[in-house]
Specification:
Length: about 290
């Protein structure tokens, strides 16, 4: 197809209103949102525009959609409904701000509370099994998650200039910056990597893709019969801190959570720890008198 043919197609088939709106929405998301967020929200918004058009963004349609069963007839999981509610809230706010809608239909839609996830840290035995078999950069990825609580996206972007014996600079979720203490194991690892540039180079703006880290570590876990992926190492990092007696507020800061409730979902305690905690309570009962000796 020649340049003139492409131009003629563009003239003959101009973008529809829905396509134009979705294009603008995507451009706005690209100014602040992570790639993962964009990849989730743009197709979702496109599907809703295709089904409803602008006129169909009403509280009634949205409520019916959130309550609509899945294709197999089963009800949507609460996690899914909460995620869809968040997507719609974001898109409708943008539609109002961009003057495509006069009123926000989400103001009349009841919020869907996200279920509280159970903590899923690796067990110490599972962590030992992973470290016993992991090699090369895969072992280093796991170590960064276990000893600094880094997410896969943060591991992918770590650079030599970000790491010193005193601390690790992290550009985290939502572009939030943090300086974390450097664990001795990570500093020892740093001696094998360049002092400038990405530790794990690749095709994603010069560094490895976070998806590759997640998939590779997930495959290793699967080989060992361990559920989940590298994020469970971050959960264990938080649990280890608490078990070591670190104040929960400090754990929150090290995990870089905005809310303490989020930190609670990353940590776990076992039955022995609960029993030990109860045994620390002083007795409030009066001593039992002993009968006088005969």
């Amino acid at each position: 197809m020649t340049h003139d043919d492409i131009h003629m197609c563009a003239v003959t088939h101009p973008p529809t209103e829905a396509e134009f709106i979705i294009g603008e929405y995507q451009q706005w998301l690209q100014t602040w949102a992570a790639d993962r967020t964009i990849k989730a929200r743009v197709p979702f918004a496109r599907a809703r525009m295709k089904e409803w058009g602008l006129e169909g963004f009403t509280a009634r349609n949205i409520g019916e959609f959130l309550g609509r069963p899945r294709e197999d007839g089963r009800p949507k999981a609460r996690w899914s409904r909460a995620t869809y509610h968040a997507h719609l809230t974001d898109f409708c706010k943008w539609l109002v701000a961009s003057e495509y809608l006069d009123e926000n239909p989400m103001d009349e839609v009841r919020a869907v509370k996200r279920p509280t996830p159970n903590p899923r840290p690796l067990t110490e035995v599972e962590a030992a099994r992973v470290l016993a078999i992991a090699q090369g950069e895969v072992r280093d990825w796991v170590t960064l998650a276990l000893c600094a609580g880094l997410r896969a996206m943060e591991i992918a972007k770590i650079r030599g200039e970000d790491v010193s014996e005193e601390g690790i600079y992290v550009l985290g979720k939502g572009d939030v910056e943090a300086m974390l203490p450097c664990h001795p194991d990570i500093w020892a690892m740093a001696q094998r990597y360049p002092r400038q540039g990405y530790w794990f180079p690749g095709s994603a703006n010069g560094h490895v893709r976070s998806q590759r880290i997640s998939l590779t570590v997930g495959a290793l876990f699967s080989e060992l019969g361990i559920e989940g992926g590298i994020h469970r190492c971050r959960h264990l990092y938080g649990s280890r801190l608490l078990r070591s007696g670190v104040n929960v507020r400090r754990v929150q800061k090290l995990l870089r959570h905005a809310r303490l409730e989020t930190t609670a979902t990353y940590t776990a305690v076992d039955e022995d720890e609960l029993r030990a905690a109860i045994n620390l309570l002083p007795s409030s009962l009066p001593p039992i008198p002993h009968p006088p000796a005969a």
